[in-house]
Amino acid sequence: MNATRNQGAVTRSEQDPGGNPRQPPLAGDAAQLIGLDEQPLHRLIEATAESTLHCVTFTSAPAATNFLRTAARLGRDVKVRAALKSTVLAAAVGPVAAGPLLRADIPVAQPDRHRLGALVNEVVRRLPTHRSPTA
Fold first, then answer.
1. Which of 2, 66, 104, 126 has the fewest CB atoms within 10 Å of its CB?
2. Which fold does the domain 38-129 belong to in CATH?
3. What does the pLDDT average to over 15-38?
């Protein structure tokens, strides 16, 4: 498909794998406009910042990016990054999902096989030797 913008179509890079136009990520006010509840994410960020959990898992790069961006928007990025570098284990299903975290210099546990079950096994294997959060 070699469509151009002036013909009312979108280029291949602006399409999702199904050929549909990509939607911009939702954040802040836009998320509220459509009724997206960000409170669970905010609670996860707060628990990570305060090291009241043992592990955070990521199954996609957009999820990891949104986690880090929302932490920054909430002013919790410094504490979140510090926790993920020490007491809270960051785990991702594979190198693509881990990418945003690795670019932020956050160590990430990854399974050899990039599957959800393998991620769970990796977390179970790593948690006993990982530093415990301060409850």
1. 2
2. Rossmann fold (3.40.50)
3. 58
